[in-house]
Amino acid sequence: MISQEKLQEILGNIPAPGNTRKLVDLNTIREVKIDGEKVEITAATTVFDDQAKIWLKGAIENVALKQDGVKEVNVNLVALKPKEINAIGSVIAVMSGKGGVGKSLVTGLMSVALRKQGYRVGILDADITGPSIPKMFGLTEKPYVTENGILPVQSSLGIEVMSINLLLQNDDDAVIWRGPLIGQIITQFWADVVWGKMDYLIVDLPPGTSDAPLTVLQTLPVNGIIIVFTPQDLTAMVVRKAVNMAKQMKKNIIGVVENMSYLYIPEINKKMEIFGKSRGDEMARIAGAPLLAQIPVDPELVKLCDQGNIESYNTEIYGDFARNLFDVLLTEGQAKNI
Ligand SMILES: Nc1ncnc2c1ncn2[C@@H]1O[C@H](COP(=O)(O)OP(=O)(O)O)[C@@H](O)[C@H]1O
Ligand SMILES: [Mg+2]
């Protein structure tokens, strides 16, 4: 007779309609009970319409009946809200003391680094007035909206993305909503989006240390913060502000990332610190957290981001960044095996 764990695993591997996600990704299989030759399975219908529900029931029955020792299958469908099925390992927010330092880029690179290690990763673009994640990943498809929940849009590598840009009619529509409404959208991005079962949800915060990032940190259950900065004059002050905000919110800073650290000139095999001397170690001290990456100024990277191809950026940055991230995530007890 098949074990309960094994049956749960096999059912989880059933591809959901659309074929890009499996039932386990959507956390659809809620319970599997085995009683002699009888099996009782409870499944969530969160993103399934009436037709898909019929399919779901049939698919689960068929697969279960094929298993060793199973003679009778009962499938209960339950209508659960996204909030009730979402199971997210860690929520990591990417913060910067000011705009334009590459916060979104770091969010993107970090998500790709984790995804390339085989983790299930999502990006919640919380920069409502300056959303730039969809463009970076070349996403134009609209999220699948059902009455029960919204499915994020998947990138080529399978990163789940939710951004206000994906919901707007036109990419260039300006979002001029103020505080309370922004809070509501973030709440919805958390509670009404079907993230499913996920290892890491990376949040691209609004820039700076104003009300907007504060609202997001108050709204979402953030486990750790990563601060992004560039090596410029006022960096120390800007990073201190971000550190203070994190402390005020009682959030843990798990690392800092220096962006635009240097420009590498291959012809002379030299790194030039064009924005000033690296401040990586100093900022790590100020934040009381490790320096996770030093990202060079790279015109190729800008080109790929503009083309929506950030995932095809091919450098050892991903490996180093991922390794350092794992070190901190493991010590935080947050990294998970899949
Ligand atoms: N390491 C880098 N090399 C080259 N260009 C970069 C780098 N980091 C960021 N940029 C560019 O700088 C601009 C701002 O980056 P972005 O990630 O949107 O910043 P933020 O989210 O902090 O406002 C973008 O056009 C981006 O392509
Ligand atoms: Mg940004």
Specify the oligomeric state. Answer: single chain
Bound molecules: adenosine-5'-diphosphate, magnesium ion
Number of helices: 12
Distance between the termini: 25 Å
Largest sheet: 9 strands, mixed
* Average pLDDT for all residues: 90
Rg computed from alpha carbons, rounded to a whole number of angstroms: 22 Å
Low-confidence spans: pLDDT under 50, at least 5 residues?
334-338
SSE pattern: HEEHEHEHEHEEEEHHEHEHEEHEHH
* Portion in beta strands: 15-25%
Indicate the percent of residues in helices.
Answer: 25-40%
Total beta-strand segments? 14
- Class by alpha and beta content: alpha/beta
Shape: elongated
Describe this protein's structure:
The protein has 338 residues and is α/β, with parallel strands linked by helices. It is 35% helix and 24% strand. A hairpin with a 4-residue loop joins strand 12 and strand 13. Helix 4 (103-116) crosses helix 12 (317-331), helix 7 (179-191) packs parallel to helix 8 and helix 9 (235-248) packs parallel to helix 10 (280-287). The longest helix is centred in the first third of the chain and has 16 residues, at 50-65. It starts with a helix and ends in a 7-residue tail after the last helix. It binds adenosine-5'-diphosphate and magnesium ion (MG).
